Amino acid sequence: MLLFARAALALGMATLCLTPAAQAQSEPQSQDQNVFVMGGPFTTGYFGDAFFFWDDHYESNFFAGIGYQHFFHHYESFKLGVEAGIGLRQGAQTSAELWGGLVAGLTEFSFGDITITPSITAGLSVVTDTIGVETDRADKLGRDVPILYYLAPEIAISHAAHPEWETFARIQHRSGGFGTIADIDGSNAAVIGLRFKF
């Protein structure tokens, strides 16, 4: 067992020593990973209503979150990856949200130095408690809904001078998926955010 521990330690030290050299010889990174922050108000309407951002249908409740994406598959302008994040749902009630899922995006819409990237994330969302109109809907349903589907359509914008930075707008949506988990359109927040790609 001691011999195994020594071998593992030696292998670990060798890996640490060789990693910088290997990175120096490799090609530059293609910005397959990113971190982001975002925030915005919850809406009183349903998922489709959240797209009409100019309508005055917002709650006093607010969402703020951070997340991470890693893209592992590229085909021409299409990319596929995973996303995970954690957020705070703040208002008269306070709730935390944890979500994760697959994210798919396109990167083919360029106008001069501006690139517009539509994407969508789909997965699961877990919350510690409901908030705002989501609480009313859960009460009508007659049970708690801590786990629901997560869906986040998004439009991101970047500039050629700093392609590592991206601003975006998305809908932070939780629902029962047409009754497959629960017959509920849980919550919808209209958020804006900033992303750093590396």
Automatic annotation (TrEMBL):
Taxonomic path: Bacteria, Pseudomonadati, Pseudomonadota, Alphaproteobacteria, Hyphomicrobiales
Name of the protein in question: Outer membrane protein beta-barrel domain-containing protein
Organism this protein belongs to: Devosia elaeis
Keywords (A to Z) from UniProt: Signal
Annotated signal peptide: 1-24
